Amino acid sequence: MNRISTRQLYFFLACVAPVGKLVLLPAQLANFAKNDLLFPALVQIVLSAAAVFCVLLLARRRMTFYGLLSETFGKIAAKIIATVFAVFLLFAALLPLLEQKLFVQSVFYDTLPSVASFAPFYLFSVYLCARPIFCCGRTWDILGPLAVVGLAGVLVLSAPSADYGALLPAGAAGGSGFLQGFSGAFPWFFDAALLVPMLGKIDYREGAAWKGALFYLLGGLGVLFFLATFYGIFEEISVNQLFAFSATSKYFSGVTMLGRIDFIFIYTLALVMAFYCALPLQGAVECALQAYGRNRVLPAVLSIAGNALLFGLSLALDYKFADVLKAVSGTVFWLFPVFCLAVPVLLFLFTYKGGRSETA
Amino acid sequence: MKKLSGKLKTDVKELKSLLPAEDILTFEFVSERGLAFAVVYADPITDKELLGEQVIRPLLRYEGEAAAQAVAKQLTSPEIRTEKTFEKLSEEVLAGNPVLLFEGADEGVIAGTKKVFVRAVAEPSTDVVVKGPREGFIEDVKINTSLVRRRFKTGELKMDMVEIGRRSKTAVAVCYLEGTSVQPVVEEIKKKLAAIDIDYIPDSSYLTHFLSSRPFSLVKQVGTTEKPDIFCAKIAEGRVGLLVDGSPIALTAPYLLIEDFQSSEDYFVPPYRATFTRLLRLFALIVAIYLPAFYVAAQLFKLQLFPVKLLLTIAGSIRDIPFSPSLEMLLVLLVLEVLNEASIRMPKYVGMALSVVGALVLGETAVSAGFVSTPAIIIIAFSGIGLYAVPNLIEQTSVLRLVMLLVAGSVGTYGIVLATAFVILYLVTTENFGAPLVAPFSPFVKRDLRDTLIKYNLGSLPERPKTLKSPNKRRLR
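Predict the joint structure of the above. Result:
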């Protein structure tokens, strides 16, 4: 059972992956695209689904990312590409981590806690990253239903307060708003890149590629519904609601009687998010291990090194989140389409051989 | 290994030299035809009445030849066998089986007249049921195997006996249904048992250490039960069971965490009732682990978690408490654990006094004196009760509760979320004998969910759990 089953993959694509898009992305999209925030998100979801499709088609060859690269480009080039990809995954992990840190500090505490309050996350991440990557599949079996419960709970509590008419008239933000929203949303749609290090560990079944893409689109529908609800509740002030899913449900009428029962769902989603945010780091460690060989201590060493680096960065950038967001979603946003869309598609074009599944 | 010489006096002397203890006695007698016999036996553990009736009396009139097989045929004991070496014979004497030696024989005859001191088969106090069988295992492996055999009238039930312990030579019965249990699991268990090199096995719990893939793990990796009906049901599902002499607790493997949420009674009541009680157990366990932690975290870091009216009540209660919420909760928890430990170990007649001291003196007076608040006592009491809803997981959940409390006191609710993430990750990556601990939830096995937290009726459970990989898939035809 040391492989990721297709069912576990579907849980990830349909349930776990959407959770990462519920914190800061809604406000970011509302900032650029206003009431048209659904359109850039929809295009991003469709593009990511296509990239997921390509990666899963490669999974049928049952070869690792490094194996595919070395077969096509030779070992030296494969080592370089795998290393660059690992570095990209570390970079991709930065924004979700900072986002999660801010989310935790504002939602889990009444007063602003010290920087150390988020430090235990890195202990968890070190432990997760040192585990073999197929362990993710096992966690998704648990996290998938939890994510559904969390998201459904938040939506059920939020939907009655939403005025979906606020999304009309469509197209009011214009082309530039759409384009800005589209490009600014790239750092949140790196799910295809997350699957790349898992190549060779996926227990591919026939039809898994298009089913995976379909499940990703299904999860995307959940995100779109949440975005619509979010904008329906906050409308013009959506841009100020940085931690979307903790903000939408607090207007539920039962809150005054029962307390913040929505926190049950928010904490459930936070639990799922903890795993999701550590995933790029785990992917980076896996890429490095594939390229440079695996022994008893290397997973732990790489895991500690990767997490220490990001912990250091999160400390250094503690008060510079706005600058980081601006840089990642503005100046260097192109890195994301390159690594999350182009790399899977190019990898597919160069290495796909068609036919039925191969044995590793 | 030294063999018998056929000279009675020499052989008795040799055997006695291996067994120099004072309670190893020899009884010598001569048959009417003049054949000399000697019985070597361990006095405290041999049933002398049976020995006289089934061994000595038939031989007093023995007229046959001086051969072990011929002598053995005269004995009326149902358990008769022969051995040629002194080492084997001495082991039998120490096990309570007298050894018969006689002039001219190069084999000793062993009679199974062991004296067995056992308590009656009774309902185990740890697993009481209203409906269903009330028998429980006892400390004698033979009686325990008979309780199992009585439930399986089939030759497919195998009970392979092995001895563990250099000095205790504890008998362990490996029980499984041939063709239903997974043979590699049976082999792996036997291999692990054979590899144990320890001098003494006082209880079956010693074996769990050797059978676990993660011996130092917080979570159980081998199932335990005191009830033959549960034991047999698990064997019938394809598991392998272990009965250990001297222990009323039987072991089963592979173990799934969900087993401890199931009670034997669930199978004797309507499925909707079983489902309700299983969900209740899960709820109780979650409350037991998380309630004290969330109470502390909410007070320290996130007051919004309380509804306003409750917050005002709590604020009134904790106003004059000299300790921080986490220290207060920790102290109350510590008192509960001490009371719990004392109530288990204390003689029964002191139990009532202990309850009075615990409830009135420590509880009431501590609140009146302003040391602890009433909500803290209520929360710990609720948590304490919740813990006992799943009695087989008490050791694990009480530790988890303490960990959650410490994390909540230092990091707050996010600490609880992360600690939960740790627990999930740890649980999903633990497996033993090829079965993942949290199956059928992870890996998700849809069919097996029918007998987990939700209990379907018997007609909907025609197949054995897929997780256990039994070669005999169907149980209901």
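Chain B is about 45% helix and 10% strand.
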